[in-house]
Amino acid sequence: MKTTDNLEIYNDPLQYDREYGGYDADVRFILGHLPPAGSVVIDLACGTGRITLPLAEVGYEVTGVDLHEGMLERAREKAAEQGLPVRFLQQDCRSLDLPVSSQLIVMAGNSFQHFLTNEDQDRMMESVRRHLEPGGRFIFDTRNPVPSELAVPDRYEVDAEAGGRRIREVHTETYDPVTQILHCTTEKFTEDGAPLGQDAISLRYTYPLELERLLRQQGFRLETMYGDWSGRPFEAESGQMICVCRIEEP
């Protein structure tokens, strides 16, 4: 599977906003790690602008980048509604060619897990490094691979809402320990059980020391790793790895 084939879960930007638009723990964290006022900030895998727009609101020159044009269209609509001069670009994070560089690049929403192979991760990190100014920071998150949670396939149901109606979702998650990829499928049904279709996503898990080595090989120093966006210390059972890393200066 290619990274570019792994996007169908994002085909409904309005539904994405309904589900995730209210989440702001990462926004609050990033607001506490900003460069001087008025600086350029680059938001990778920006989606519908959940992080991009709050950064622009506080006076930063923000460029949002995403691979999914539908998500970007929604982000542009929201920026126009709020009168925010944000640049949104459709590019692959593995081969960025942006007209700006920055002291801070962010990538949240566990988007790091979309880079499914070592080559994908390397190319993405190389792209980030090319667009960071000397001494600049890269802040991103990725889920922590807790073995007890990944060892057994998981299947569960949730009630949800889509298009103003109640639906039932059946989620199936199966982890492949060889590729370190979690394969997730969501089947959707009406309340009376009629099928509405399904979507799928695959997510790569990276272990803490593996991640630290990747960063070092790509010219970054891991300053801090937190266990969540509130800044709790990282522990074995933490749900996430929040990485604050700085490009190494000569």
Automatic annotation (TrEMBL):
It comes from the Bacteria. Residues 41-136 form the Methyltransferase domain. It holds the Pfam family Methyltransf_25. Its EC number is 2.1.1.-. Keywords: Methyltransferase, Transferase. One of its GO terms (biological process) is methylation. SUPFAM superfamilies: S-adenosyl-L-methionine-dependent methyltransferases. It is an enzyme of class 2 (transferase). GO terms for molecular function: methyltransferase activity. This is Class I SAM-dependent methyltransferase. It comes from Bhargavaea changchunensis.
